[in-house]
Amino acid sequence: MMNKKEILKLAKGFRGRAKNCIRIARERVEKALQYSYRDRRTKKRDMRSLWIQRVSAGTRQHNVSNLFSA
Q1: How far apart are CA 7 and CA 62, in angstroms?
Q2: What are the pLDDT digits (tens) for 41-57?
Q3: Model's pTM, two decimal places?
Q4: Are 20 and 8 in contact (CB under 8 A)?
């Protein structure tokens, strides 16, 4: 469990009472940490998808066929 000082430090930049009211800040910080955990994985998925799209677009642009098919 985090103490009051750590929670308010993590809540810095939040809007309204979420930045200075400990009860609300605790809830908002907890939810923010859940979002950040989830979105670190989503970011990897999105970057992989974007990379595949860019490679595909580049191969079409330069008329390159699939070099890796045997």
Answers
A1: 53
A2: 999 999 999 999 999 99
A3: 0.72
A4: yes
